[in-house]
Design brief:
It contains 14 helices and 21 strands. By secondary structure, the protein is of the alpha/beta class. The strands form six sheets. A six-stranded parallel beta sheet has the order 2-1-3-4-5-6, with helices on both faces. Strands 17-18-19-21-20 form a five-stranded mixed beta barrel. Strands 7-10-13 form a three-stranded parallel beta sheet, with helices on both faces. α12 packs parallel to α14. The protein is globular, with a radius of gyration of 22 Å. The chain starts with a strand and ends with a strand. The protein binds 5'-deoxyadenosine (5AD) and iron/sulfur cluster (SF4).
Length: 439
């Protein structure tokens, strides 16, 4: 059988998509972990920031050299960058044989055949329906403990800085029945943690046999499959994180007490310019409700520094909001103008790079303080931890995460990967909690 090597960049949605691609090609290709034995290399790309695209361009140049030594090697580009730059890339990048956008993976076998007879090909059609619902993803790069299930595709929010609505198309949900079936299969295979994935999972909605299933209901259905399997989800848009969803997370022990709720900016002027459709006050009210209904919930976020027209005062408001929420973790970025997104057409990217950089550094420094504070608060507490692997730093330690998504490191005792153990926290750094197993 021919060998397929997939390299995945960007978000977890791409990881889930690569698993779908592996399944679509499974009749002809076996996944390989060694790029040198590959007959076909697929690069699943991300376009969210310019930096990501630059990295992929560099990678394509390296693969071009590889291909010169191995003329029968085929190279294909998948994902958001395929959609954004389209066939232009086929001309610009000699290494490439084929391009498939995020909704075109079913056409990969045909594209590969055409490429084999020397015709460079592409399919970047977006779809209003494609959810790859009937495809059983092949989880080829797995620890056997945690798995992702993609529950919806696309995004309708059109935040002005973002390419996703253009590269991944309109929002559409999978049927709840196939999601539940997939979750049950994972549980039967021994997985202990399932993450439900979508750009905006809170607007999940399916209707089957007269039953309307919203995200809160779907989460409940998955949580009820087994009390011993944790359920996580990503990502939520603050505009529709409902009381019903918060109550569902509170109700089930195996619904992880961790909510990733990207705020992006702390000032109302910036939020409006980003088309986030909520205010600072609304966001803080949602946070207060989460804290009231789930007192032990960790909250993480995404923040963009230096969006168009951001004043020093706007930036200070981002810092003050971060302090007010007390995030346990954050993903922080400099604004990167994207040609096809709305902001590039409407506003000037007018914050100098060194100002963006300085603001980002201040945001990162503050988050380190907040993460440390949040971790220090956990010293003395005991958490249930899912053992995920051996610590990279010390061969005498294992690591795992608690419900709040924090990493705990602890000395090995008689436990195995995939077990739940109780760990009492004794010390911490900004990134990890250290503790010992208690009975
Ligand atoms: N520039 C910088 N960060 C961006 N993100 C999305 N688009 C951009 C952009 N153009 C960030 C947002 C989003 C995360 C996935 O990436 O914070 O939540
Ligand atoms: Fe992009 Fe906004 Fe959609 Fe997230 S919600 S994918 S930031 S448009």
């Amino acid at each position: 059988m021919k060998k397929l090597y997939i390299e995945t960049y960007g978000c977890q949605m791409n990881v889930a998509d690569s698993e779908v691609v592996a399944s679509i090609l499974a009749d002809e290709y076996q996944i390989s972990k060694d790029i040198n034995e590959a007959d076909l290399i697929l690069i699943n790309t991300c376009s969210v920031r310019d930096h990501a695209e630059q990295r992929i361009r560099k990678r394509l140049a390296e693969l071009g050299i590889m291909k010169k030594k191995k003329p029968f090697l085929q190279i294909g580009l998948l994902g958001c960058m395929a959609e954004r730059v389209k066939e232009k890339l086929l001309n610009e990048e000699n290494a490439l044989d084929l391009i498939a956008g995020p909704d075109a993976y079913r056409s990969l076998p045909a594209l590969i055949q055409e490429a084999a007879i020397g015709k460079k090909t592409f399919n970047v059609m977006l779809s209003l329906e494609e959810t790859y619902d009937d495809i059983d993803p092949i989880r080829y790069d797995t620890n056997g403990i945690s798995a992702f299930i993609s529950i919806m595709r696309g995004c309708n929010n059109f935040c002005t800085y973002c390419v996703v609505p253009y590269t991944r198309g309109r929002e559409r949900s999978r049927s709840s029945q196939t999601i539940i079936r997939e979750a049950q299969q994972l549980i039967n295979q021994g997985y202990k943690e399932i993450t439900l994935l979508g750009q905006n999972v809170n607007s999940y909605r399916s209707e089957e046999n007269g039953e309307v299933v919203n995200f809160a209901r779907l989460l409940e259905k998955v949580a009820l499959l087994s009390p011993h399997v944790r359920v996580r989800f990503a990502t939520s848009h603050p505009k529709d994180i409902s009381d019903e969803l918060i109550a569902t997370i509170a109700k089930y022990d195996n619904c992880c007490k961790y909510i990733h709720l990207p705020v992006q900016a702390g000032s109302n002027v910036m939020l409006q310019r980003m088309n986030r459709v909520y205010t600072r006050e609304y966001y803080l009210e949602r946070i207060a409700t989460i804290k009231r209904m789930i007192p032990d919930c960790a909250i993480a976020t995404d923040i963009i520094a230096g969006f168009c027209g951001e004043t020093e005062e706007d930036h200070q408001q981002t810092l003050s909001l971060m302090r007010e929420v007390g995030y346990s973790a954050a993903y922080m970025f400099k604004y990167s103008e994207r040609e096809c997104a709305m902001a590039a057409k409407r506003f000037k990217d007018d914050i100098p790079d060194e100002v963006k950089g300085r603001r980002l550094e201040e945001i990162i420094a503050l988050q380190q303080e907040l993460s440390l504070e949040s971790n220090k608060n956990d010293i003395g507490k005991t958490f249930e931890v899912l053992v995920e692997g051996a610590s990279k730093r010390s061969e005498n330690d294992y690591f795992g995460r608690n419900s709040q998504n924090k990493v705990l490191v602890f000395p090995k005792e008689d436990c195995h990967f995939g077990d739940y153990v109780k760990v009492k926290v004794e010390s911490c750094s900004t990134a990890t909690l250290k503790g010992v197993i208690v009975k």
